[in-house]
Amino acid sequence: MIGIFYSGIGGLTEVRALRAARPDLSFVYLGDTARAPYGTKSPETIRRYAEDCADFLVSKGAKAVIIACNTASSLASGHLRARHPELPIFEVVGPAVRAALAASGTKRIGLIGTRATVGSGLYEKLLKAADPSVEVVARHAQLLIALVEEGWVDAPETASVVGKYVAPLREVSVDALILGCTHFPILKAKIAEAMGEGVALIDSAEAVVAEFRATLEADAAFEASLDRGGSASYFVTDPTPAFSAIGSAWLGAPIEVSKADIAS
Ligand code: DGL
What atom in ligand 1 is closest to the CA of residue 40? Predict the structure, then answer.
C-alpha cells in the first residue's frame, strides 16, 4: 500500500497521476480537511498534524508515504523520517529543488509558497547545499490560495495579486520559479504571464510524481515490496459531499470517502 497525505483535496492530483501510471498498485489517501489549511499554522502544529497523518496511513498498511503538501513537506519531512525510519518517505521539496537546479542557467531561482513553507527556509537550504552559488528569492503568496479556492482563476483581481507577489522575483530576473504550493499550478498561465518569457515554472507535485516513478523503476526491491491489486481507499478527517463530488470528478470515477478519526 502507498499512503499519500495532504491537508485537503489537492493531493488527489498526485493520486490520479500515479494511478494512471501504475494501476496495479494500491493506494490509501488521507486529506486532513478538518484541520486545513496547514500553510498558516505554526511549525509545531504542522509537525503534529503530519505525524497524525503518517501514523494513520501506516496503521492502514502503508509501506511508503508520499507527502503531497508543500507545507507538510517543508516542516515535517525530517521529523517523519526520524519517527518512521523504516518507511520510505517521499516529499515534494527535494524533487522540486532538483528540477529547479536543472532548469536554471543563471542560478537565480525564485520560490513562492505558503507563509509556513517560505518561513521554514528548507527550499533555500537545499538549493544552497546543492550549489552554494545559487541566489534564492523566496516570497510567500498566501492570498493566492484563497483566490484559487474561490475559483477566481481568471479574475482580473487575481492577475493583479499575482503581479504584486512576483514583482520582487522579476526584479532580480530569476530564470526558474518554484511553485511551492500545490494550488499554484492552477494559476500557471497567470504566473507565466506575470513573470515574462524565459522563466521555467517548476511544479512540485509533478516533480514528486516523476521522482516516485523513477524510484519504482530503479529500485526493484522497493517496487516488489508494494501491494498489488490496484485498490484505492480515501479518507478525510471531515467528510463533506463536496469532497466526494470533486474527488470523483477529478479521478473520473465515483469514490467512496470514509472518516479518519485522527483530528484533535
Ligand atoms: N497544501 C498546502 C501546500 O501545498 C496548501 C494548502 C494549505 O495551506 O493547507 O503548501
Answer: 8
Give a yes or no: residue 264 inside a domain. Answer: no
Q: Which atom of ligand 1 is nearest to the CA of 41?
A: 8
**Residues known to be catalytic:** 69, 181
CA of 39 to the centre of ligand 1 (A): 5
- Structural contact between residues 228 and 26, judged by C-beta atoms closer than 8 angstroms: yes
Q: What is the pTM of this model?
A: 0.93
Question: Ligand 1 centre and the CA of 160: distance in Å?
Answer: 22
Closest CA to 205 of 179, 187, 227: 179
Q: What Å distances lie between residue 62 and 40, 49, 99, CA to CA?
A: 28, 17, 27
**Same domain, residue pair 185 and 102:** yes
d(CA 15, CA 251): 8
Among residues 255, 251, 263, the alpha carbon closest in space to that of 7 is found at 263
Kindly state whether residues 234 and 159 are assigned to the same domain: no
Question: Whole-angstrom Cα distance, residue 67 to residue 51?
Answer: 11
> pLDDT value at position 263?
62
Report the chain (264 residues): mean pLDDT per 10 consecutive residues. Answer: 94 89 95 96 97 97 96 97 96 96 98 97 97 97 92 94 96 96 92 96 91 94 92 96 90 94 76
